[in-house]
């Protein structure tokens, strides 16, 4: 989120003021562009409530569980962000992840393929699914709601066929199982953290210096320091907590370190954020979501952008399916079924991605996924049954969609978006 | 001014099925001048502009650009020649900022990454060259701009690409008094910067305020293309409504005199 402004006078380049940065952010929030604020506030409130009511919520083992429980949803939601950005919906992403997981399980268990071949086959299946869905939407002009509703039903059947009408295929491949069940050695976790923070800081500083050199306004050092410091603090606390001993009996089996799925999610997050914000392709995704006719007149191939958004969505669903298979140690007809899709859409929307297209970020999926995971986990600890969890998650989703709709209204009134 | 028009069509015919919309139309636009294109609803203004912009193919007649005959079959080819059309509905993406909109579809990049700094510089330079002072920041979202500011961005977008001819479709139709004045000033500045500007307008005040020449279409025929200084308000209105005004205009259905 750039808050830089252009210098009107060609005078010496000056940093945008700190106060200006803060005021600009506040104006945007008041104008209805709240970004990640509701999700972050929600997370803080939920965590405080659960921590106060159930001390078990704050234990390091539960903290690690949050990541492994939320990862698959967050990854599927990341893909959904692309489809939501162009103003479409993919209702089949959940079962698409099930189909891809079943392909993975078949390749591993029944064909004896190595894990990388199986993973490749699963992601390729996702890409093919996305191509078919996207082509039906973009070229034939069938509403995405209907196309993916059909696919939702069809894939449900396809999963059944792939798992031989309802058997449970066990995953025994050590690499796939490691994704959700093994941890990085604590030292490696810290190394990963240090590299991440250093690279982020370097990018911020280099960008500010380049802009300064060209006479454009740049972010002041204090703002950069704040951003880097915030990242270093939050990520540092997380790595520290995950590196604590969380085994009941440490002498028997030590259990420490960042779950392997965390760096996978972080890499996907950074990669797709880069694609959306720093490449022409990402710019075109936003343009198609904001005004498809303007994009068409600007010479952008709108159909190609639409299809690729669906390809990204289904491919990410495949990755989510692999993570889910690793977590369950098996694939069955329910993998990717029941509430997975709804949680994923909910995660994207709760995070601040608009259902109306043109607005959203990949990190929304992760923040929203965290909210969904915290609700599930905390309510489970409180001893509530699945029924209450469903109702609460549904209410939170409605709340998030309501915030989205209200902020659009407010934005229309204040002229923002 | 310059003797040779930048853009000229002669004997242009265009039909949609059995309906002939343009008959033997002659039209020219000169560098450094604003040519107003006027006519009643259904006179064929939009069709003519779309033929010039390559959206419609022409059925007959000559299309000359810089004195050389050309064929323009797509908006891309028109843009390559240096013809840009600013449509009435503007076609800006609300969720992108000014720079992003100006470079939409033609982003500058270094390698795989967007070159934001260069784009920002070029956009600022273009807005400066048009003496645009009305926008606060070029990193503002287009959704936060007023109608006049949007029009300004759309026009600046057309100018960014070293275009030679800029065609504006009713740029002031939806604007208030002050904003209309701003946009008209901008239109004049485009011509003063050496571009050939074609201004479609229903508003006679606008036409007389900025144009150097007026071309009046009547039922798909070019009634007259004259210097604005040589005609009066009422003569233009007569040309629009009846196709002729005294010596000016269509003397009979088959011929065109100017």
Verbal overview:
The complex is a heterodimer of chains A (417) and B (258). Chain A has 417 residues and is mainly alpha-helical. Chain A has a domain at 37-47 and 64-182 and 259-414: ABC transporter involved in vitamin B12 uptake, BtuC (Orthogonal Bundle). Chain A is built from 16 helices and 2 strands. The two termini of chain A are 15 Å apart. Chain B has a domain at 7-94 and 163-249: Rossmann fold. In chain B, strands 6-9-10-3-11-12 form a 6-stranded mixed sheet, with helices on both faces. In chain B, helix 5 (147-159) runs parallel beside helix 6 (177-192). The longest helix of chain B is centred in the C-terminal third of the chain and has 16 residues, at 177-192. Chain B is globular and about 60 Å long. The two termini of chain B are 19 Å apart. Chains A and B meet through helix 11 and helix 12 of A and strand 8 and helix 4 of B.
Structural class estimated from helices and strands of chain B: alpha/beta
Largest sheet of chain A: 2 strands, antiparallel
pLDDT < 50 stretches of chain B? 253-258
Number of strands of chain B: 14
CATH class of the domain at 7-94 and 163-249 in chain B: Alpha Beta
Distance between the termini of chain A: 15 Å
Helix content of chain B: 25-40%
In order across it, which strands form the biggest sheet of chain A? 1-2
Task: Examine the secondary-structure arrangement and name the CATH architecture of the domain at 37-47 and 64-182 and 259-414 in chain A.
Answer: Orthogonal Bundle
Number of E-state strands of chain A: 2
């Amino acid at each position: 989120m750039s808050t830089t402004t252009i210098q009107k006078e060609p005078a010496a380049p000056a940093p945008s003021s700190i106060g200006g940065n803060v005021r600009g952010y506040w104006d945007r929030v008041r104008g209805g562009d709240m970004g990640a604020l509701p999700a972050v506030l929600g997370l803080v409130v939920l965590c405080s409530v659960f921590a106060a009511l159930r001390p078990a919520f704050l234990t390091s083992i539960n903290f690690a569980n949050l990541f492994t429980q939320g990862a698959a949803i967050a990854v599927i939601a990341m893909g959904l962000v692309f489809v939501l950005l162009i103003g479409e919906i993919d209702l089949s992403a959940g079962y698409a992840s099930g189909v891809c997981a079943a392909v993975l399980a078949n390749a591993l268990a029944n064909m004896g393929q190595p894990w990388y071949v199986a993973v490749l086959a699963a992601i390729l299946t996702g890409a093919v699914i996305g191509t078919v869905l996207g082509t039906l939407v973009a070229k034939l002009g069938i509403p995405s709601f209907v196309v993916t509703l059909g696919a939702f039903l069809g894939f449900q059947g396809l999963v059944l066929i792939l798992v031989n009408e309802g058997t449970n295929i066990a995953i025994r491949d050590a690499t796939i199982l490691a994704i959700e069940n093994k941890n990085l050695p604590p030292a490696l976790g810290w190394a990963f953290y240090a590299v991440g923070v250093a690279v982020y800081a370097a990018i911020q500083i280099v960008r500010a210096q380049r802009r300064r050199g060209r006479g454009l306004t740049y972010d002041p050092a204090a703002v950069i320091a704040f951003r880097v410091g915030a990242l270093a603090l939050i990520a540092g606390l997380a790595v520290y907590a995950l590196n604590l001993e969380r085994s009941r009996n440490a002498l028997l089996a030590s259990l420490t370190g960042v779950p392997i799925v965390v760096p996978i999610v972080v890499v996907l997050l950074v990669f797709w954020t880069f694609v959306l914000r720093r490449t022409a392709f990402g710019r075109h995704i936003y343009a198609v979501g904001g005004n498809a006719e303007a994009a068409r007149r600007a010479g952008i191939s709108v159909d190609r952008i639409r299809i690729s958004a669906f390809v990204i969505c289904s491919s990410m669903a495949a990755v989510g399916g692999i993570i889910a298979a690793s977590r369950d140690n098996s694939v069955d007809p329910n993998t990717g079924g029941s509430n997975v899709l709804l949680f994923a859409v909910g995660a994207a929307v709760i995070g601040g991605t608009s259902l109306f297209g043109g607005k959203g970020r990949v990190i929304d999926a992760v923040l929203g996924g965290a909210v969904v995971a915290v609700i599930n986990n905390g309510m489970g600890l409180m001893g509530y049954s699945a029924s209450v969890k469903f109702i609460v998650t549904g209410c939170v989703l409605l709340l998030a969609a309501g915030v989205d709709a209200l902020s659009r209204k407010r934005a229309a009134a204040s002229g923002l978006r | 001014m310059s003797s040779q028009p930048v853009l000229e069509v002669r004997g242009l015919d265009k039909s949609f099925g059995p309906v002939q919309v343009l008959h033997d139309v002659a039209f020219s636009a000169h560098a450094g001048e604003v040519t107003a294109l006027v006519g009643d609803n259904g006179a064929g203004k939009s069709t003519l502009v779309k033929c010039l912009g390559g959206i419609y193919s022409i059925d007959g007649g000559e299309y000359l650009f810089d004195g050389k005959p050309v064929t323009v079959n797509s908006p891309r080819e028109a843009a390559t020649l240096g013809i840009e059309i600013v449509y009435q509905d503007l076609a800006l993406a609300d969720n992108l900022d000014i720079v992003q909109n100006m470079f939409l579809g033609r982003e500058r990049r270094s390698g795989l990454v967007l070159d934001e700094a260069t784009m920002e510089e070029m956009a600022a330079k273009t807005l400066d060259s048009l003496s645009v002072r009305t926008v606060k920041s070029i990193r503002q979202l287009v959704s936060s701009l007023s109608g006049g500011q949007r029009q300004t961005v759309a026009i600046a977008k057309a100018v960014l690409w070293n275009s030679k001819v800029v065609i504006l479709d009713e740029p002031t139709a939806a604007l208030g008094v002050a904003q209309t004045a701003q946009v008209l000033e901008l239109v004049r500045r485009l011509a003063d910067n050496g571009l050939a500007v074609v201004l479609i307008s229903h508003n006679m005040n606008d036409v007389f305020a900025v144009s150097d020449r007026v071309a009046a279409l009547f039922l798909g025929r070019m009634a007259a293309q004259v210097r604005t200084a040589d005609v009066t308000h009422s003569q233009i209105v007569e040309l629009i409504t009846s196709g002729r005004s005294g010596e000016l205009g269509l003397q009979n259905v088959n011929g065109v005199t100017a």
